[in-house]
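Team,

Forwarding the record for the chain on the shared tracking sheet. I've put the sequence and predicted structure together so nobody has to dig through attachments.
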Amino acid sequence: MDELQRWRRHNPMSDPGAGPLGFDGLPADVTALCRVVQGVLIHSDWIAAYGASEAEFQTVSRETLPLAARLGQIGEADPRPLALERATYKRAVGTCRDYALMLCGMLRQQGVPARVRCGFATYFRKEWEDHWICEYWRDGHWNKADAQLDKVIAPRLDIDFDPADLPDGKFITAGEAWRRCRSGEADPAIFGHGEAATGLWFVRVNVVRDHHSLNGRETSEWDTWRQATAAHRVLSEAECLQADGIAAHPEAPIDAAPVQPLVPPWSRAEEAARQGGMYS
């Protein structure tokens, strides 16, 4: 079987469903598809940059939704065809992973192998910032696209390259970041999510999340890294060796190297109870 076939097929996260807003009839050009994505989504961390406030949106969340649910949300706010750019306050609020997933789904709908990758980008505030992008197969190799870099965000980051075809070195997968850290080529402290979560333990989090994403699980138990305690941030040699194997072959089946969730469900529920709320 064509080795790329696995990334041509929709999974439950990338399937647009049978709602009134679908992906049929959209342009084939990746740059044009990025513009379509940008016209229906807004990043939760960048709302103010668009001259908007959270109060203008019905829902502000960092939860990555399956595309069928996301398209339903977009259609409720504005039922016009997907290719028409929405007013800022009528867009769905998400994160970089939502942009990557939306582009991935559009490409798969056209039979183009595409996949969502977790790793680190060098064009944000931190030297290597936690980030998600979409890879698509064209001209015999994987190309990288960042649909988040629109006409508002790109100028603020001084983007001087094509977001639909990222140059080498602008984004690296979590596996490559892990390899650089383990070999001594890079300091783990330069990789992370803002200033709150940095270091080798977080690189490992993204190694596993990328591994899950390549296996059709763009969201997973490893998205709970914000509940990590000090103990979770100290890695054993066994954990490092396991991450070595996953980083080397992130596309391998999950069952070949199962990894326990960083924060077990019972721990998260217990913590939520202490905080007086429900875990979500």
